[in-house]
Amino acid sequence: MARMADIRVAVVGAGPAGLYAAEALIAQTDGNVQVDVLDRLPSPYGLVRYGVAPDHTSIKSIARYLQRVLEHPAVRFFGCVELGSDVTRRELLDCYDAVVYCTGAAVDRRLGVPGEDLPGSVAATDFVNWYCGHPDAAEHDFDLSVEEVAVIGVGNVAVDVVRILAKSAEELRDTDIPEHVIEALAGSRVRRVHLIGRRGPAQAKFTTKEVRELGELANAEIHVRPQDLESDPASAEAAERDRRVRGNLAALRAWTGPPAGDRPRRIDVRFWLAPVEILGTRRVEGLRLERTAPQGDGRVRGTGEFETLPVGMVVRSVGYQSVPLPGLPFDERSHVVPNEGGRIVDASGRRVPREYVAGWIKRGPTGVVGTNKSDAAETVANLLADLTADPDRPPPRRRIEDLLESRACRVVTYADWLNLDAAERDLARRLNRGERVKLGGWEAMRAACHPR
Ligand code: NAP
User: Fold this and answer.
1) For residue 125, how far is its CA from the centre of ligand 1 (angstroms)?
2) Domain residue spans in the chain?
């Protein structure tokens, strides 16, 4: 019979969901477990490193908490190991008693309007990856010579994007934004950013603390049209029910005065405008929007009135979505791996043994970083209950380290990651910039992991 101490679990994805899952595995077994955390990147922390905005330093400090999980003796980090190419799902199942997939939601949702693929129409996921220094985005080049930008969607990601576009490069110098991105932002000619919601202010997804920050920017003034804030029954009901909605409305109301025109940049928060077409021949030249009106139930209908904004760039910030994992069931409608409390189930509702999910791939792209803690704990409780209920299962047949070695896969260990971490801190010191400056690109990161 396998004792708890013999349990080996692979966690795929070293973001918050993966590391909270590792933490829960340790906590719920009193450390009598071996947890291997695999990630295709050389660095851990997932969205804390590559999604949380660089100027949100207090949220970024969650990495210090997650670091303690990685440093637990029961945990090993395997960076630069990609599921599908370096190790298959079947092989993982040979090496472990159970596998928890925590691969998040890596791609953007499509807008579905003509012109979406024109140069200058940008997915927020790509723009965020770029300013966060994600190695996949190191080669991206955004044309910031344009004067007006539209950001579609009124969630917290859109608010982050607006803030980064509205701040001066000087204001961002103390963040970990890579040097080449700071240089591009310093050359930005963007003067006006439109933040666009297809429904009303009471239906906006952003949180009050986040949207309030836009009003505190030194470099930009913010304006909301008073008529956009006129209430309808569904909005009044939402405001009554939800403190966040009341807070958002109060923040927006404070910005309805006439713009003073005394700052280099301006933010216009607009509502009741649904994107119809991104205009342009060779690149983005405008955004055509249809005015919407409330239907009374929180939804909107088109009014047949149109407006065109003369923007040279459109950032589509309409949500993230997960991608299917090779060989695992996937719900194409909700873009998650179908599961019951983290236990993966197939199309007919049957359990897929020994495979689990946690985080955004389990529940969709919602909630704050901390939401993943309870989410992962639920998955792990179910995983351990299943293993306990099956004491006679055969032990794992292979060792992951042998397998990766036989494949000449250059794994980044936790010690290697610490080299990269030190190189980024050292770069910040040399540039006289904050605590850390991210290295741009795969090559620089790999080289820093394995210094000669
Ligand atoms: P989100 O909160 O789901 O917001 C997506 C926005 O896109 C909504 O306003 C949505 O409007 C709009 N949208 C969707 N389809 C559209 C379409 N076809 N046309 C026009 N608008 C459309 O997603 P997110 O901003 O990507 O954020 C993801 C998660 O990360 C959220 O839980 C968020 O709170 C979290 N996050 C948190 C922070 C923070 O705490 N500081 C920072 C970043 C992200 P409808 O409502 O009308 O669909």
Assistant:
1) 12
2) 7-106+322-412, 111-318
